[in-house]
Specification:
The structure is a homodimer of 193-residue chains.
Chain A (H helix, E strand, L loop, with lengths): L1 H10 L1 E3 L3 E3 L7 E2 L1 H11 L10 E5 L3 H12 L3 E7 L8 E8 L4 E8 L8 E9 L3 H12 L3 E11 L6 H4 L6 E11 L2 E4 L4
Parallel strand pairs in A: 4-5, 4-8, 8-9, 9-10
Antiparallel strand pairs in A: 1-2, 5-7, 6-7, 10-11
Helix pairs in contact in A: 2-3
């Protein structure tokens, strides 16, 4: 998505350790008009008329997933993050390593709000190693729901997280901006699929 | 807001300890159409044409704040929650007691994205004791920004959190559904202001 790539190139910051910061428009201050554009772009790649839920993980995925759900006319469901002790019953759960928190967290979704009748589009704002995404996929599978697609706004391609999702059969995966390289010389994008 | 109250009365659950659960449409599974209606309702109470930011706290406030920001044509900014150690510089911070996590957390907003030129509408989905809300107000003040108003979708009136915000001079506060009582007999709302 050219518009998103231009925005990342212009405003994204590369920090030591190949960290790409896009907190001026995507995951701290959020440009809601850009979220609208992203939601429309995803609709080109996924059968959004069939879905019953947009699923994401707290916290930074919520803004984009909400705008997508609104565009497609369905509810947005977000997995909560909890420490692994003291978890109630009635929940789908998946333990993942959080890059942000540098520790294991458990993704939780109430069984009340996701079931075999659901058709789910997973949306996230950012993907590095893909651990949180795998947790969301596991939850969709645990619910017996149908996974209609996986959409990511910004993928750090060089961390390889997207590869296993691209390899999934029958589930379309699409990232709108895949960063191939991020260092002191700037940000390089992968050519679109 | 009649529509919101009806929804709470119909789908809200009261758990032991006067806990009101509205996770089927507000803060886990999120009804994006209802968020649209709430955003329009808030526009009746606040001067949304003047604002430059909608501010909220992660995680559950993000969905509603995003839809509000989108309606008013401004960016949404969310305060991140962190444990109190290991906090970077360049941040406005406010330490608050989290009802959800049962411990102190620090609300963080980058100084890069909020400053004296900003006019801020704070939006949250739910308020009980108002500690997180106070943290957000403190951050707006620390930034030297103007606080244009405070909007809450659901306030647990019997916990008193809203009272100090109603008492603020020059800053309008409005809650769309104020719960006066929640017990085994059901949910009672306060009459509208």
């Amino acid at each position: 998505m050219q518009k998103l790539k231009e925005r990342i190139a212009r405003e994204g910051k590369v920090l030591p350790g190949n960290i790409v910061k896009v907190d001026g428009f995507l995951n701290h201050l959020v440009d809601t008009r850009l979220m609208d554009d992203i939601a429309e772009e995803f609709a080109k790649y996924f059968d959004t008329k069939r879905i019953t839920r947009v699923l994401t993980a707290e916290a930074s995925g919520i803004a984009l997933a909400t705008v997508c759900a609104q565009h497609y006319g369905v509810p947005m469901l977000f997995a909560k993050k909890a420490k692994s002790d003291n978890i109630e019953s009635g929940l789908y759960q998946s333990e993942v390593f959080s890059y942000t928190y540098k520790k294991k967290v458990t993704l939780l979704v109430s069984q009340e709000w996701l079931g075999p009748e659901d058709k789910v589009l997973i949306i996230d704002d950012f993907m590095a190693n893909g651990y949180a995404m795998q947790g969301l996929v596991d939850i969709v599978n645990a619910a017996g729901a149908e996974l209609v697609g996986i959409g990511v706004a910004v993928e750090k391609g060089f961390q390889g997280g997207g590869d296993k999702f691209r390899a999934m059969e029958n589930v379309p995966y699409h990232a709108l901006a895949v960063i191939e390289k991020a260092d002191e010389n700037g940000i390089t994008f992968r050519e679109d699929d």
